[in-house]
Amino acid sequence: MSGTDRQDAALFARLRDLWRDVDPMPATLIDRMIAAVAAEGLSEEYALLTLVEQPLGAVRSDTDALTLQFSDGRTSILLHVTRTASGRHRVDGWVDTAAAVIELTQGERVRRTAPSETGRFAFDEVPDGFTRVRLTTTVGDEERTLSTPQFEL
Hints:
Blueprint: H1 3-22, H2 29-39, H3 42-45, E1 48-51, E2 66-71, E3 76-83, E4 89-95, E5 99-106, E6 109-113, E7 120-126, E8 130-139, E9 142-147, E10 151-152
Antiparallel strand pairs: 1-2, 2-3, 3-4, 4-7, 5-6, 5-8, 8-9, 8-10
């Protein structure tokens, strides 16, 4: 190490000590940074689930209807689920962006449809079970996927 390098290192050490005394690092900064890095991208991986119109207690009521809204901050999906005469479910949905494909997945079973120009789509005779809806959009040259968390029908 040359004399200039030693002088620079000593100067930087004094500056570091000065700032450590004048403006110390917050005690929680490291934990907050770890949480921020871990949470980055979660909004893309998981959509926000919000119950709309129906109180939670009404989900298993006589009407057995449920309205759900999922959003990743850029795209939203609204789902209205009703029980059919056969005991299965009808899932009516609306998206607020141009979507190429809408998929309803239950385990290994995947059903696909394309929404209308107004963003409306539907799936008939959906059995009970854990369900996920995924939509694929194309904005310019970018293809994006919004996948809802699993919800139970």
